[in-house]
Amino acid sequence: MTSTLDVDTRRAPGSRPRSSVRAVRIEASGTSTDAAVADIGRLYDGREWTARATDHPFAYRYSAVGDRDVTLRRSQIGGFIRGVVPRSEDYIVQWITSGHGVPDVVQDRVPLQIDVPMLLPTGRDFLFEYQDHDQRLVHLSRRLVHEVADEQFHTGDVRDLGLDHLRELDPAAVTQWRNGLALLSRELRTGGVDTLLWHTLTRGTAAAFLRMYPPTVTALPPAVLLPRRARLRAAVEYVHEHVAEPMSVSDIAGAAGLSVRATQEAFQRHLDQTPMTYLLRTRLEHVRRDLLQADPTTTSVQAVARRWGFAHLGRFSAAYRDEFGEYPRATLRS
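Given the sequence above, the corresponding structure tokens read:
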């Protein structure tokens, strides 16, 4: 296996300085099952990986090229491979052009369809199984995706965009995604990763990714997006970033560099609600997202409510109905 970073130090006219770019080029191949586990497993911090031959001699080939924000990858394995992939900072879209694969055999249990993209559940550990496959993968950095998501959807500085990795994809969005990848591949061949065009195309790829998998987090209110309200935006972003943690008005004020009174007045004046009401409504949004994605046969409303800090089920249900026009049980069953 070879892994090369910054493989070419030459710069084309108009290219970005090398200090801002980290080129990625990876090549691995062989016929040993142990080598496949070691080579490919190392790239994904994998554990409990195993590989074996099927009805023909085992062989593998893995390649990746791009930069620290976007890499285009291909994994070809003549044989069977299985293993656990831990939580990753990358968003990874993948599809197979031949063979068989189940990205998550424990929780999702959804087999891949030929040429149909699927987002891997990289926000948690998952156990995959693939056999005799030719797989394409696109790794996108969390930094890039979240930056573009904030520009397009005003998501703010959030840890989780709430992407549904099993959502049914819009065919038009998939077409835009594929067209963007074709342009990226062409630029890799002709200009490399240190050109202005590559930078532009990677941002376009992130935008196409978000059309396939739009964020479900609550967008920041338009009132906080004006430059003169930067401190109010900082307060609102703090709420979204730490929504799953204990929080007080003092915490929110400290994050914005304001006094408690100034924070309360800013929320009331520009958002027509108190900071704690805004926190409550944000947590209700997260409850709704979890209920929509949950299996009603194994999930209870009470368990989801408690996860987001709601102890009194009756008061929670009333607040949920006021916010969304239906009781949480109806959302879970939808």
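The mean pLDDT is 91. Try to locate this feature in the token string yourself.
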